[in-house]
Design a protein that fits this description.
By secondary structure, the protein is of the alpha+beta class. It is 30% helix and 25% strand. Helix 1 runs antiparallel to helix 2 and helix 2 runs antiparallel to helix 4. The chain is globular and about 50 Å long. The structure holds 6-O-phosphono-beta-D-fructofuranose (F6P). The site of 6-O-phosphono-beta-D-fructofuranose (F6P) has 11 residues, from helix 6.
């Protein structure tokens, strides 16, 4: 028989190698439990009618779907019962969510069902999360941490069953779900240097609404690279991590209806952009915003702050960053 190393064994060994406590392991067990349960609901969602609209709107003004609520409830349950989380920031909740404010050790920023336009089709969505740690050596200095202060960040592609986790200074690792719902077989992910597999990924429908310099950059690069877009960050970024290239969600500044402009971008800094930026950095890549500022350097001012995002292979990020910085 052939046995693959489980995620839990991998993370246990990592903690022991670095002489760390088991608190992080306990938190990761909670996140994995939540992801598996969401995976289960998603797989049977179409059958059981869980993929439709509820009819209400969330804090971002988007329609809430049944699966969004299910995923939120599951995640909050497990984060609460593990006892290690002080506060959480979730895509579904306007305010910071207090969990174990006295005894907790970590801040968790998450979107447990990202890529909602794919939900009603049962197509891939993501569970994205970033983890920061309480200041154990002095007074707490705030709950909204910049990406550079995350200790780990990860994403599940649901229901595909892949899990990618980046650990601070310890690389980006990919796991696959097995037949008994264990995430197994760690493989370190590094962005490929060979440009032949590189891809560009962005919503082509928005292209003419991007800044002129971004449009010009795309026009030059698109002759060289393939184009792919799924419409769910975890899925699109998963491809970029494997094949190399650039995922971007630029600012919308030239929309024919000015009310639809999004000069600050669409994606959320804390639980979308900073998560993939952290994963990307540990895999040898980089990420910047519309001003060419590194995503991981941006100090969030509010939990649901938006940002433009350019993330992927370092040479492409450096190239577009130079143009964005003017
Ligand atoms: O913010 C949620 C999200 O669904 C991301 O997962 C995805 O990358 C993006 O929005 C897709 O947006 P659009 O439908 O505008 O291309």
């Amino acid at each position: 028989m052939r046995f693959e190393q489980t995620f839990m064994n991998f993370i246990l060994q990592h903690q022991e190698r670095h002489n760390r406590t088991y608190h992080f392991l306990i938190l990761m067990d909670a996140i994995i439990s939540a992801a598996k349960r969401i995976q289960h609901y998603y797989l049977t969602g179409a059958l059981k009618g869980n993929l439709g609209l509820v009819g209400s709107v969330n804090v971002q003004g988007e329609e809430v779907m049944r699966m969004d609520q299910i995923a939120q409830e599951i995640t909050i349950h497990y984060l609460g019962s593990c006892g290690r989380v002080i506060h959480a920031v979730s895509e579904e909740t306007k305010e910071i969510i207090p969990i174990n404010t006295e005894g907790g050790r970590y801040f968790v920023y998450f979107d447990s069902l990202d890529g909602s336009s794919n939900v009603s089709h049962g197509l891939p969505v993501g569970f994205l999360f970033g983890i920061a740690k309480r200041n154990l050596d002095g007074p707490e200095d705030g709950h909204l941490r910049a990406g550079k202060d995350y200790r780990a960040a990860g994403m599940f592609v649901i229901p595909t069953g892949t899990f990618t986790l980046a650990l601070l200074d310890s690389g980006t690792w990919r796991f696959h779900i097995d037949e008994i719902m264990n995430f197994v077989k760690p493989i370190q992910v590094m962005l490929p240097e060979d440009t032949r597999s590189w891809e560009l990924s962005f919503n082509e429908a928005n292209r003419r609404a991007f800044a002129e310099r971004v449009q010009a950059w795309i026009a030059e690069k698109e002759r060289k690279y393939a184009f792919r877009y799924l419409g769910a960050l975890a899925g699109d970024f998963h491809r970029i991590l494997s094949n190399g290239g650039l995922f971007m969600y630029p600012a919308i500044v030239n929309h024919p209806n000015p009310e639809k402009n999004r000069p600050k971008g669409k994606l959320r800094l804390m639980y979308e952009a900073a998560v993939v930026a952290f994963i990307c950095r540990e895999a040898g890549g980089d990420a910047v915003d519309e001003a060419g500022t590194p995503i991981l350097e941006i100090q969030p001012e509010e939990p649901h702050q938006r940002t433009a995002l350019y993330v992927g292979s370092k040479p492409l990020v450096d190239d577009i960053a130079q143009i964005l910085r003017g």
